[in-house]
Amino acid sequence: MPVVLSVTNGVVTYGDRLVLLDVSVAVAKGEVVAVLGANGSGKSTLIRAALGLVPLSRGEAALFGTPLRRFRDWRRVGYVPQRLGAGSGVPATVREVVASGRLARRGWAPFARAADRSAIQKALDAVGLADRAGDRADTLSGGQQQRVLIARALAGEPDLLVLDEPTAGVDATSQQAFAGALGDFVGTGGTVLLVAHELGPLAPLVNRAVVVHLGRIVHDGPVPEPAGHHAHPDHDHVHPHAPETEPSLFKGTA
Ligand SMILES: Nc1ncnc2c1ncn2[C@@H]1O[C@H](COP(=O)(O)OP(=O)(O)OP(=O)(O)O)[C@@H](O)[C@H]1O
Ligand SMILES: [Mg+2]
């Protein structure tokens, strides 16, 4: 299968602080890859670097086989950031936020076409927010706002979805609905890279886990088994079994 997303020997620094050290990861078409690891380990930085949202100080990233610096086909990519940014001050309805996910598809046609409207409606249904479509997005709860962002990404009908903790703060019913939507997405040839702390209902969909620890990938393979004392059928969060030593290049991250 062709490689949809890759970072090769990627290094990211914030100021003089090394946050990702020589990280290589590749996601093939049709895969669902989960990025796991402790807070601050570099998970968000890894996916942001893969999308060119933070610069690599060394190494390379590519999307759909095209080096990022030459990649222009952004409508093929849906991205859900970890948190809704601070309010833009513009009150937008849920439907408007989701519709913004269609903009890259619309070209210069000024009005939403039937295909836009149906993709927007389908995305709202997938996250269970159709009944809130006319409400101001900033009046929704945190978990509901997260679902709005997921719907916005789905509405763009991308080939690749990159999701940073899409189900954090989302209730069990909505997680189940999202897992269903993600299953449909993968069933139609989509590829997914997601960050998660608890896979929950997404677990059956995940093919591979990449565990990040102190800015390095310490595991790339099957989803790690839960640690022994947590080994309970209902307890499916994963622990990175990683070396405790800090890389010597590492400065002051916990
Ligand atoms: N914009 C930034 N400027 C400076 N340091 C940053 C920035 N973003 C992240 N960092 C630092 O980089 C390290 C990795 O952060 P990152 O957000 O990638 O972690 P994470 O694994 O996604 O954590 P979490 O599970 O809490 O989301 C952290 O030490 C963090 O403080
Ligand atoms: Mg993060």
TrEMBL record:
For this UniProt record, give its keywords in alphabetical order, as a comma-separated list. Answer: ATP-binding, Nucleotide-binding, Transport
Ranges where the record places region Disordered:
221-254
Spell out the Basic and acidic residues composition-biased ranges. Answer: 227-244
- Extract the SUPFAM superfamilies matched here: P-loop containing nucleoside triphosphate hydrolases
Name any one GO molecular function.
ATP binding
Q: Which SMART domains match?
A: AAA
Q: Which PROSITE patterns match?
A: ABC_TRANSPORTER_1, ABC_TRANSPORTER_2
Q: Which residues form the ABC transporter domain?
A: 5-239
- Matching InterPro entries, A to Z? AAA+_ATPase, ABC_transporter-like_ATP-bd, ABC_transporter-like_CS, Metal_Ion_Import_ABC, P-loop_NTPase
Xref: Pfam families:
ABC_tran (PF00005)
Q: Gene3D superfamilies, alphabetically?
A: P-loop containing nucleotide triphosphate hydrolases
Under CDD domains, the record lists: ABC_Metallic_Cations
Question: Which PANTHER family does this one have?
Answer: METAL TRANSPORT SYSTEM ATP-BINDING PROTEIN TM_0124-RELATED
Name recorded for this polypeptide: ABC transporter
Species name for this entry? Virgisporangium aurantiacum
